[in-house]
Design a protein that fits this description.
This protein is an alpha+beta fold and about 200 residues long. Helices cover about 20% and strands about 40% of the residues.
């Protein structure tokens, strides 16, 4: 099968904090031929970075908690436990974003950075491409309230044991995809990482 598609029309629906575009397109079918015309909205969200901050000596991770508008439709309060993350700005590499966001969102310096994977977060409607890292840190003194005022960030930072982070995930108290992927990755690689980093 030729994995071809054709954009028939595209226009901007909304441009505010984010960009929303509407597409009219068609694509090749697995059974052969072309699909009928399809209309889809695309939430344009360029490249982003997330980093799991991990102290291999103390076996602790840094979790951040902040208000998330995407969670307001659920009955639970929309303050989510997450890991440090941010958008790649013009001229920045994903690695530079990881180092920058660790300081801005958690007041924490990364000592060494290890790539985990890169992936689409919600490709059914968003273009976001995420680079996920694990950052070696010294968690001594890490915590408190952080974030940039001009970005309206209000972020509470906590250091918890790996076991506690894993428990929070199992209990559904960490219910955002990116930190779930990162914590599960650490569960699989923790022994090797502690041996490598200590």
């Amino acid at each position: 099968m030729d994995k071809d598609f054709e954009v028939l029309d595209k226009h901007e629906v909304y441009h505010g904090f984010f960009l929303l575009e509407k597409y009219r397109l068609k694509h090749r079918l697995f059974a052969g031929g072309w699909s009928p015309e399809v209309e889809r909205e695309l939430f344009r969200r360029g490249s982003c970075v997330a980093v799991l901050l991990y102290d291999p000596i103390k076996d602790t991770v840094v979790l951040i908690e902040q208000f998330r508008v995407g969670a307001i439709l659920r009955p639970e309060a929309p303050w989510l436990l997450e890991i440090v993350a941010g958008a790649v700005e013009e001229g920045e590499s994903p690695e530079e974003v990881a180092y920058r966001e660790a300081v801005e969102e958690a007041g924490c310096e990364i000592l060494e950075l290890l790539p985990i994977n890169s992936f689409y977060t919600t490709p059914g409607g968003s273009s976001e491409w995420l680079s996920l890292y694990c950052g070696r840190i010294d968690s001594t003194g890490v915590g408190g309230i952080h974030g940039l005022d001009h970005e309206q960030e209000d972020i509470r930072v906590s250091v918890v044991s790996f076991d506690e982070a894993y428990r929070l995930m199992e209990q559904g108290k960490i219910n955002s995809g990116i930190p779930i992927v990162a914590i599960q990755w650490l569960a699989l690689n923790r022994d090797k990482l502690r041996s490598q980093w200590t």
